[in-house]
Amino acid sequence: MSTSTSSSFNKIGRIISGTFFALIAASILLFLADSLLRNLA
Amino acid sequence: MSCQNRCDKDCHRQLSCQHQKQQPEIIGWRFDAIKLMRWLVLISFVVAYWLGQGWNQPNTMTQLQKLYPEAEITAVNGKDSVWQVQQSSADSITTYTAIAKTENSYGGPLQLITLYGDDGRVKDVDLLNHTDTPAYIQKLRNRMHFEQYENQPVVRNNSSPSFDAVSGATISSDAIMRAHFRGLEEAGQLSFGKTQTLVEQRLQIETQHYVLLAFLILAVASQWIKHPAFTLGMAVGSLILMGFWLNQMFTASTFTAVSLSYTPSVYENLSFWILSSGILFGILFLGKNIYCGNICPFSALQLLLNKITGLSLPLPKFVQKYGSFVPKIGLWLVIIIGLLTTVPIAGSYEPFSMIFSLQGVGIQWAILPLVVIGGVFVPKIFCRYFCPAGQGLDYLTQFRNWLAGYITKNKRRSS
């Protein structure tokens, strides 16, 4: 595999894993905010 | 090179330099951000505890009024547990007695009201407040758990029907049953002059407790047995036994529950005590966190999923650099929200109960698929970057090891 192909794969891999990381973090924050408001109300 | 020159060049390393002694001493203050953060975190816990206790004192009268909005409610003999509930209709006034009892459940205390009439029969049973996962309570309501208590006699005898717990919400239904029985004990004495003992503190050891114990022993053994087949067997066993069968997991809300003194008694939840004791044994005597990677069924699920695909995508540089802070912040948020709301599970975002017992609310259902699919691409993405429970156990292990090192160092110095 050439260096440029490997670099492209790494880039795509980083985008996929980064997207999942961001989505999980965002959904956790949403859950925490919702839970805090619901339980304090 | 003269001593002065050496000092000018590399002063901080020349501690034995004579010139340093002659120079006026500079009284300085070294800023330690980590130490400051630790103190701020501790202070935030104390403030959240204090605010939570002030905000969330349950008011039985207000909650009863919410439950029976049309009724006139008065306290009996100034007690906070016995109430007179007067319901008026167009042609009659009916008076009931309501008894409020509190018992420890899965997420903390729950307060149950038992309403009965002069005819000696239970009219209504309902929750005044609870700290359980809303999905579990909804499951009880869907299964008409509360309705089974209605129209039953207050004074029970051998022929009185027994009550059923709801599978998948056993701890909550058991706590409700105990609170109801405690209410009946007081009602029998108060209104009908009958003393009855309905709640027995008996240690019930069942098959699941032996299995849990055996699994903990295997987890301790896994610290020495590093064979891949053994690790794989532990993962499969953890998924099936701990996850799907026992549904027994350690969550970060346990830290909040302990600080709020919400721990169940050994009679109410023996599994909790066996699991917690096993984890503590690992930390105290082995200096290791034996739960993560050995006992945790969610960790096992991620491991097995990733083994199937064999993928390990690289993470963005930002995540590699700062990702380790996320579980630390997560743990802080779980504890702060738990203390502020006095509901330990309020901040517990781990998707454990969703996958193994299909219980969850709202946005929690989004966390589960994201974590599972994310785990396919990145090995143990949740354990490594999000799990607050694992972070808490790691902190305890680090503290134990630091303490052990400190004691050993002091012993060596003194001898």
Helix content of chain A: over 70%
Low-pLDDT runs of chain A: none
Number of domains of chain B: 2
Biggest beta sheet summary of chain A: none
Mean pLDDT of chain B: 87
Number of β-strand runs of chain A: 0
**Approximate strand percentage of chain B:** 5-15%
How many discrete domains of chain A? 1
Summary tags:
heterodimer, A: 41 residues, 0% strand, rod-shaped, B: 415 residues, alpha+beta, 2 domains, five-stranded antiparallel beta sheet
Characterise the protein shown here.
The complex is a heterodimer of chains A (41) and B (415). Chain A is mainly α and 41 residues long. Chain A has one domain. In chain A, 93% of the residues lie in helices and 0% in strands. Chain A has one helix at residues 3-40. Chain B is an alpha+beta fold and 415 residues long. Chain B has two domains: 60-192, no CATH class; 207-414, no CATH class. A five-stranded antiparallel sheet of chain B has the order 1-2-3-4-5. In chain B, a hairpin with a 4-residue loop joins strand 3 and strand 4. In chain B, helix 11 packs across helix 15. Chain B starts with a helix and ends with a helix. Mean pLDDT of chain B is 87; it is low at 9-17. Chains A and B meet through helix 1 of A and helix 13, helix 15 and helix 16 of B.
Quick recap of the structure?
The complex is a heterodimer of chains A (about 40) and B (about 425). With about 40 residues, chain A is mainly alpha-helical.
Which helices and strands, and how do they pair?
The complex is a heterodimer of chains A (41) and B (415).
Chain A: H1 3-40
Chain B: H1 3-10, H2 18-22, H3 33-55, H4 60-67, E1 72-75, E2 82-88, E3 93-104, E4 109-116, E5 122-129, H5 134-142, H6 170-192, H7 207-221, H8 228-245, H9 253-259, H10 270-286, H11 297-309, H12 317-322, H13 325-341, H14 352-357, H15 364-377, H16 381-385, H17 388-414
Antiparallel strand pairs in B: 1-2, 2-3, 3-4, 4-5
Helix pairs in contact in B: 3-13, 7-8, 7-10, 8-11, 9-13, 11-15, 13-17
